[in-house]
Amino acid sequence: MGTESETLNGKVALVAGATRGAGRGVAVALGEAGATVYCSGRTTRQRRSEYDRPETIEETAELVDEAGGRGIPVEVDHLQPAQVAALVQRIDDEQGRLDVLVNDIWGGEQLFEWDAPLWEHDLDNGLRMLRLAIDTHLITSHFALPLLIRRPGGLVVEMTDGTREYNAENYRLSAFYDLAKTAVLRLAFAQGKELAPHRCGAVALTPGWMRSEMMLEHYAVTEATWRDATAGDPHFAAISESPRFVGRAVAALAADPDVQRRNGGSFSSGGLAREYGFTDVDGSQPDCWRYLVEVQDAGLPADPTGYR
């Protein structure tokens, strides 16, 4: 079971940062559920961002169409307020509503230095990472929320890495990365407080060990052969999930008529799968964050039994 078809017919979503990875997975999953999805990002078929990768927002929009929704690609740099304002005005002009905002802008993979202490980490890269991870979300919400709150039931999903509980107890790679991902958790909580009087809400959501395009390349596997990555990291081969899995988590939240009970909370794809019943593309329900604590962090050998 994936998501129920057409549960989001008539709903309009903006996935900010939809070019690849979790953003693409979310956009396609919302399309599976019948939504109209604006897919924003910086890389198009005519122009690449500094990532210099082949994935484009046009491809994402086409995948949304193929899944059953309507995908609309829009080139936007979410650090540029004028561009974000123009995007939201376009959504208003064309749809007159916004039901779901997914703040997935990131762009920091090439900027953080694994386990480098603050005084050794490149300062410019660290500050740029914070701008990409936090400023973009604030700018996008600033312009999009007035449209979202016109109707009760609007939902903001702040995508991050790690649950509130996990990040509160664990150092995440570097001071800059740790701050970026923890700040997004707090941003979801703060927006939830401000949205509640309008009968709208916000949540933070994390995927597990996600098989993004970059991660598949890193392990020299494909979505069809990811189980062969045991030599690179047996835990990846045991518990990883496709980007569609966290996308189906967003679709399940957006279709939940009582989602307001989750306002301000922090959730994971695996945790929500157990509650809503959706699965990954292979039919499994990987519960990465429970696995991470109970198996990987505990130093046990890779074994997904009971975790997917």
Describe this structure in a few short sentences.
The protein is an alpha/beta fold and 308 residues long. It has helices at 21-32, 57-67, 81-95, 123-148, 164-169, 175-195, 213-218, 234-239, 243-255, 269-276, 288-296, and strands at 12-16, 36-41, 70-75, 100-103, 155-159, 201-206, 266-268.
Task: Walk me through the structure.
- The chain has 308 residues and is an alpha/beta fold.
- The chain has one domain: NAD(P)-binding Rossmann-like Domain (Rossmann fold), CATH 3.40.50.
- Helix content is 43%, strand content 11%.
- The protein has eleven helices and seven strands.
- Strands 3-2-1-4-5-6-7 form a seven-stranded parallel β-sheet, sandwiched between helices.
- Helix 1 (21-32) packs across helix 9 (243-255).
- The radius of gyration is 18 Å and the shape is globular.
What Rg is obtained from the alpha carbons, in whole angstroms? 18 Å
Alpha-beta classification: alpha/beta
CATH class: Alpha Beta
Q: Report the biggest beta sheet as strand number plus sense, adding barrel if it closes.
A: 7 strands, parallel
**Approximate shape:** globular
Q: How far is it from the N-terminal to the C-terminal residue, by CA? A: 14 Å
CATH superfamily: NAD(P)-binding Rossmann-like Domain
Output mean pLDDT: 93
Unreliable spans: none
Query: How many β-strands, per DSSP?
Result: 7
Strand order of the largest sheet: 3-2-1-4-5-6-7
CATH fold category name = Rossmann fold
Which CATH architecture? 3-Layer(aba) Sandwich
Number of helices: 11
The number of domains: 1
* Secondary-structure element order, N to C: EHEHEHEHEHHEHHHEHH
Q: Report the helical percentage.
A: 40-55%
